Amino acid sequence: MTHQGQGARARAAAHARETLPATIAFLAEHGVPPATLREATRRARLAGVDSAACLMAEGLLDPESYYRALARHLGAPYLTRPELAADTAFPDAVLAGVAPLAGTEGPSRFVGAPDPSGIARLLAARAAPEGYAITAPDALREAVFAARAGLIADEAANALPEADPSLSFKGGTERAQRRALAGFAVAAAIVAAASPWLGFALATGGLGILFLVLANLRIAACLERTRPYPSGRARRRRDDELPVYTVVVALYREENVAAALVAALDRIDYPKALIDLKFVVEEGDDATRAALARACGDRACEIIVAPPGAPRTKPRALNMALALARGEYLVVYDAEDAPEEDQLRLAVDIFAQATPKVACLQARLAIDNIDDGFLPRCFAIEYAALFDVVNPGLARLGLPILLGGTSNHFRTVALRAVCGWDAWNVTEDADLGMRLALCGYAVRDLPSTTWEEAPARYGAWAAQRRRWMKGFMQTAITHSRRPLRAFRALGLTGFACGVAGTLGAALAAMLYPVFLALALLAGATAAGAAVGIVPPWLAYFSAMPDVGRPLAVASTAIGAVTFAAGFVSMTAPLALGLWRRRWFSLMLWLPAMPIYYLLVSRAAWGGLSELARAPNHWNKTEHGLSRRRRRR
């Protein structure tokens, strides 16, 4: 470089030191254009954050280049891949940005990736402490994970079962549950053998009452007035009034959707310097990791590689991200999600108006690839009923909600208080919704939509639905271990809601073909009686002992009422959800839902089989297969 060029750089550096924050002013001496530094300062002032954080979050300078320049400026060694001591603390070392190095050789004893406040202190001292080396945050985090892989994997899987074994599915059914189930089966067999009519009447009456509770809850939810969008947008807060928000996405074999996912998250209307973005991928999934790195470019985002361990599930990966979360709030998205741009701002506003006991907001989920065929259309109808009618209605009634697997917004402190997700439950979302209620927290509705892709092929759809049904059974098993504690925590209505939403939903799906057949049989009997035809099966009723006839009449009455309520509770939320979405064209597909529910029933029986054979196996849902996704 000529003397003239060196003089120009020196003058630019001197001007930067006078007009820019110290945490980025030194970069002018290391080749970063002053215009870039001024732009970072402007954006940082709007967001109320440090300019260095804004510089890296906005992708104006990649973190590794920043920390290399910082090391050169302070005369400290820069370590590309530091090796840490075996007793490095997790997650403290990552959150504090400093960790002890392995061994005693060499001049450095510690390595740091300081945050902006630490950077300011180092620059004010004009030198790094003796024995202090510098690295980039990603390199420090990867070094911590390499040093403490076993500990990290164990804590992510077992923090909840170690804190309270009764609240985790790990271990499956307890001895008392197995004894109770065996006793019930023996008693049912004895009653059925002694009096088949009595056994049939008791079974019909018991199941009818359970399903009647489920039906009434769905009908009650329909009566609550909610909208898929807020009636009036909240006051737009200034960027410097917003808190840090952690965004977590767990991915496995999702290289096809990585670019679309990053683009969807980039569209979120929230200061990038205030988004603590974390992707979690499994070890060995190099394709997804590389695709994410390409999509993120120079933007600061964490790609956390989950160390191997059992069970290999999404909730285990989420727990690793939770340990490192820096945000006051935390949201979970799926790989194929496209949230509405103002969703985080709306969540902040609702949280600010709610009491601290409101620990979670569930956003609305909607399907945007309905042109892919029968399954996505029925899936879209089902989601419209669940997320635009049932869940918002239950939230307004203050009842437990089985969360969806994505777009759950949490108070981070409350999420940590309940030990995060159960890594041993394959519907960690449903389980967490119940556990929040048991711990005294509330879930509220977030009237903002996240668009999703539904499986279009039967194999992918069935695998996903088997996992869901298996998870409902796991949740029912987990939270029936201490029924008196659950009853005291939830009250009668909440307890009934929890039982109906987990065990009732699984049983209703499995027995749907039976009840459909009985309904058709009853219709055929009524039609035959109207024309004077007496079907032969009525002879069994005439042969019933006199003592059994009142029970048969009672069970028949319960069955008839349950069928009527069930029909209303199935169709009303579907139609109401489509009405609220203004999806009138999908109304024509409502008559196809009974066929769709037969497929759900088949998947439920498959989930029961998997519960016995492979309780912790995670059926992976493939994404990025649709070419017909569109925003509605």
Question: Care to give the gist of this entry?
Answer:
The chain is of the alpha/beta class. It is 56% helix and 10% strand. Strand 4 (245-251), helix 12 and strand 5 (275-282) form a beta-alpha-beta unit.
Would you kindly provide a written description of the structure presented here, covering whatever features stand out?
Helix 10 crosses helix 11 and helix 16 crosses helix 22 (549-581). This protein folds into 2 domains: 3-149, no CATH class; 166-240 and 333-632, no CATH class. The mean pLDDT is 88. The chain is 56% helix and 10% strand. Helix 7 (116-125) links the parallel strand 2 (110-112) and strand 3 (132-134). The strands form 2 sheets. Strands 6-5-4-7-10-9-11-8 form an 8-stranded mixed sheet, sandwiched between helices. Strands 1-2-3 form a 3-stranded mixed sheet. It is built from 23 helices and 11 strands. With 632 residues, it is of the alpha/beta class. 46% of the residues are buried. It is elongated, with a radius of gyration of 29 Å. It has helices at residues 3-19, 22-25, 34-47, 51-57, 63-74, 92-96, 116-125, 137-147, 149-163, 175-194, 196-223, 258-266, 286-296, 314-323, 343-353, 374-396, 412-417, 428-438, 458-478, 483-530, 538-542, 549-581, 593-613, and strands at 98-100, 110-112, 132-134, 245-251, 275-282, 302-306, 329-333, 338-339, 358-367, 408-411, 442-452.
